[in-house]
Amino acid sequence: MNMLLMMLLGTALCYAGMAGLSLAMPRNYSQLNAAKLSARNNFVLRVASIALLIVSLWPVISMWGVVVGIVIWLGLLSVAAVMWVSLLAYWPRLATAKALGLSVVGLASCVVLWLC
Amino acid sequence: MKQATAVNNEPGRFRQAMAWLHTWGGLVASWALFAIFLTGTIGVFDDDITHWMNPERAMVGEFDPQTNTQQQRLDAVTKGEAYLRDIAPQSHLWRIRLPSEVDPAIGLTWENENEQFQQARLHPVSGELLTQKQERETQGGHHFVHMHFEFHAGTAGIWLVGFFTMIMLVALVSGIIIHKRIFKDFFTFRPGKGQRSWLDAHNASSVLSLPFQLMIAYTGLIVFVTVYMPVGVIANYDHPRTFFAEVFNQPEHRPETGIQAEVYPVTELFEKAEALMEKPASFISVEHPGDSSAVAKVFGLFEKEKNTGRLLFLSSGQVILDAVTGELLHIEAPDLFDKSNAFAAQRIMRTLHFANFGGYTVRWIYFILGMAGTIMMATGAILFMVKRRQRSLNEFGAQTPKVYRAIEVLNISAISGLMVACIAFFWVNRLLPLEVADRAGWEIKLFFFIWLGSLLHAALRPASRAWIEQLIGFAVLSLLLPIVNWLTTGQHLFHYFARGDWSNVGFELTILLFGVLGVFTVKILKRKQQKTITEANRVYKPESESA
Q1: Measured between alpha carbons, how far is B465 from B452 in angstroms, rounded to an integer?
Q2: How high is the pLDDT of residue B8?
Q3: How many CB atoms sit inside 10 A of residue A3's CB?
Q4: What is the 3-state secondary structure (H, E, C) of B103-153?
Q5: Do A68 and B357 touch (CB under 8 A)?
Q6: What is the model's pLDDT at position B385?
Q7: Which of A17, B16, B33, B420 has the fewest Cβ atoms within 10 angstroms?
């Protein structure tokens, strides 16, 4: 149970982080939005995504320890990116909504778990 | 001015050379690499597959790790010992594996007079030999693992796989060099755009999973480092066994003396070893029993919890005893790692490659990224032909169409043909009568026959038809597999749910998912073909239907 939860949490945050990094690129951004990506949005997206990816280290490391945790995290980054790219190609809005939802749920769960 | 262009051309020419290497090296290796990757990816779940392929095993009884008492273990060894003493009093090797969570039976292995390995399995309680009627003889998930690292061809196969793995590393590095927009196209996949989409899929599947692909190829070579790079051992040691004794920090293997000697009671050796390690053991082997050089090795039980969070596994404990006198020769204390750093590095890479750390989380990550690698191989091979189908590049002069046709046929049977053969392997497991002699061997033979059949089929049919027909075969075989299972064994998904057998639930759901993906692929291909046919008709009028 605990392991499954931490794995899902790690995947969710990695997915949101990878989605953010992708949307910070003009081509991917335009797939979603007619407006051009402003420099400010680009900056905000990058910082937020990197923050999400750093936070995603926490569930995996607290579950599997530093050594195995980092290996799993590297794997999850790839898995999350593959998931994002396949969703973005067919359902860009759904993919983005999922990223937003997962980042909120993911961060909230991290806070709850941290406090408990 | 002239010099400037020459300098400017240098990187361009380098990139072109790399593109040539990537295209042709990749194509030639892609068929074998697709097989290595697909079977390796499936092999991640070898234990779960073995479990599904042994539907009768659950009836043999269940092993409860909580009630693993010493008396039970000693009884099991006594039963194994009695059987081995009877069937192979003079042998090179006896092995007794105790019941475990993976397998509730007592597993016996020995070498017969012709130095061939024989196996038998005993009921854990009655000690009776389990016959083929009670328990199907199957290769299980090991089939995929053996395909993955040796094509079922022994040392020659290991070398072949190593050779292709080297090409894979070359293809990965040359692929990175020729990919000009690696960062700009990082998250790019544009479906429905023909050649463009194939290239996108090839790039995305490899770039996004690149760390995994590099790791898995390199660690794969390191697993067999002493096979691939034997010269260091040959140059520095009189015999490889001296080298291995040093690496494993153990006494050297004792050669046979030819002097007859009674084997010390194995059960007593086992009991003694457990007392020395102060922990339960799970496995005992006796090297040349019946000879005065006989040696017994007792291995401690692997404790998962002690190794959670580790890539370098601690010793489970091992005791080596003289199997004639019962005297202690060597003890490796449990919960330590007392070997060289180089060996530790090799072990860590082995663990990384085998995915036997981090439980199901890691296995699923490896499965998904392994599939990404498999897609990388398939899209690469297909892209080669997609590019040339539109406009021949005439690499082989007048022979070009023939060479293209051969490549297309090989693509079809290497990709969709192997997929069909892998699913059909599970059908064979269920449909092959239980009493067939060498049943496990026949499973593998039929796997290869079916694969060969796909090659024949691809050679006889037009390419576009062959792809669709084989993929339909794959989808149908996948979707019907749970029904075949139900008809032949009476077991089905709901039954597995009710029993809480999540391993089998996962197996059948995954197979069904692949069946559904197969159906979608066929639909897309058919729609595309319809489109090309109508377009062709519009432009050229009826005759050019083979487009």
Answers
A1: 18
A2: 54
A3: 14
A4: CCCEEEEEECCCCCEEEEEECCCCCCECCCCCCCCCCCCHHHHHHHHHCCC
A5: yes
A6: 93
A7: B16
Tokens of B261: 């000697």
DSSP H or E segment with residue B531 = helix B502-540
Residue-level pLDDT at B4: 47
* B35 three-state secondary structure: helix
- Looking only at the bridges linking them, the beta strands covering B93-97 and B318-322 are unpaired
pLDDT along chain B (547 residues), means of 10: 51 89 94 97 96 84 78 93 91 92 89 87 88 84 96 95 96 94 91 91 96 97 94 91 89 87 93 94 93 94 88 94 94 90 94 93 96 97 91 87 94 97 97 91 97 97 95 98 95 92 95 97 90 70 44
In chain A, residues with a C-beta closer than 8 Å to the C-beta of B187 are 18, 21-22, 25, 28, 81, 84-85, 88
Query: Can you tell me whether residue B188 is helix, strand or coil?
Result: coil
What value of ipTM does the predicted structure carry?
A: 0.95
Task: Note whether B368 contacts A67, CB cutoff 8 Å.
Answer: no
Mark B104-123 as b/e (b = at least 16 C-beta within 10 Å).
Answer: bbbbbebbeeeeeeeebbbb
For residue B455, give the H/E element and its range: helix B439-460
CA atoms lying within 13 Å on the CB side of residue B436: 16
Task: Compute chain B's Rg from CA coordinates.
Answer: 27
* Polymer length in residues for chain A: 116
| Residues 20-39, chain A, touching B (beta carbon < 8 A) | 21-22, 25, 27-28
Retrieve residue B126's tokens.
Answer: 């009655």
Q: Which two tokens stand for residue A70?
A: 């980092």
